[in-house]
Design goal:
The protein has 9 helices and 9 strands. The chain has about 290 residues and is an alpha+beta fold. Strands 1-7-4-9-3-2 form a 6-stranded antiparallel sheet. A 3-stranded antiparallel sheet has the order 6-5-8, with no helix packed on it. The longest helix is centred in the first third of the chain and has 13 residues, at about 30-45.
Length: about 290
């Protein structure tokens, strides 16, 4: 019996649900020991206040939060089996993050993982495992997530659009600073559709949400209550066959810098020795599984 990851009895209905919607709630995925280990690294990693021009309303956040607990989690046979069954792919862990949301903070508006996964080809598969470290009750303080089935509105083509956009030689003439500031967010019209079709779940400690990069999602405001803050831990994963995209990575980051928007993370540059289209698995820096 694994002390960190529980074996879940997923069936064909679960697999079909994930394949159709792009997300699934995994009840009781992690043990209390695992959650305590993730809490420890999140609390002791000195999460930083977001930069002034950062486009999310969080109290604190941080990248590359890793410890021995995380290593045991993502190397566990139980987690690999769950990922393989749901995604039908062999996933590789890439990066971990932590977020702290305080009362009346709204987090992120409707967005997709353009910034999180712009170092791989736009149509290659990637996903995130969102792990709340505090209970989420939608009828009380909330502070969780809202998400929309990609069967209703997918961001699949949006990634290709952005990939083409950053290659435009006259990009700075086409866009204003505000345009690019909002580039990973849904428009007002899109937000109306997303709000109408959103799904919001309660989460017990140990539950997690798996969603792919084409799923539109947003944070939910943490209301006043007994929790002084809500912390969450996020694991990012890519398809083991995902290909590096130097064009997307450098084009998007260069464009963001042109318009004065800070880079969230330099993680993608660890693969910069690869050529466009080369598998990430060929990288000497690729040690995640």
């Amino acid at each position: 019996m694994n002390l960190l990851v529980n074996q879940l009895n997923l069936n064909k209905k679960d697999v079909d649900f994930f394949q159709e919607n792009g997300f699934i709630t995994l009840r009781g995925l992690l043990t209390i020991k695992a959650i305590n280990g993730l809490r420890e690294i999140t609390r002791t990693s000195q999460l930083q206040k977001p930069l002034k021009n950062f486009y999310g309303d969080f109290a604190k956040m941080g990248y590359n939060l890793e410890n021995s607990t995380l290593a045991e989690i993502y190397h566990s046979q139980e987690l690999r089996a769950i990922f393989n069954q749901l995604t039908q792919k062999k996933l590789k862990f890439t990066q971990a993050m932590g977020f702290e949301l305080e009362p009346q903070k709204t987090g992120f508006n409707w967005h997709v993982g353009i910034q999180a996964f712009h170092y791989i080809m736009p149509k290659d598969f990637a996903c995130s495992l969102w792990i709340p470290l505090d209970p989420i009750n939608t009828n009380e303080q909330h502070g969780g997530m809202a998400y929309v089935s990609r069967n209703i509105y997918s961001a699949y083509e949006y990634f290709s659009l952005m990939h083409q956009l950053v290659q435009s030689s006259n990009l700075s003439e086409l866009l204003t600073a505000q345009d690019f500031h909002d580039s990973q967010y849904a428009s007002k019209i899109e937000s109306l559709i997303l709000e109408k079709n959103k799904v919001e779940d309660n989460f017990e400690v140990g539950d997690a949400l798996l969603f792919d990069k084409f799923v539109w999602h947003r944070s939910c405001i943490l209301k006043e209550g007994k929790l002084t803050s809500r912390m969450a831990y996020v694991m990012r994963l890519i398809d083991g066959e995902a290909r590096y995209s130097k064009t997307f990575l450098e084009g998007l980051d260069r464009s963001r810098a042109t318009f004065g928007n800070p880079l969230q993370t330099m993680f993608g540059y660890k693969f910069s020795h690869l050529q466009d289209g080369e598998p990430i698995s060929k990288s000497r820096s690729d040690d995640g599984e």
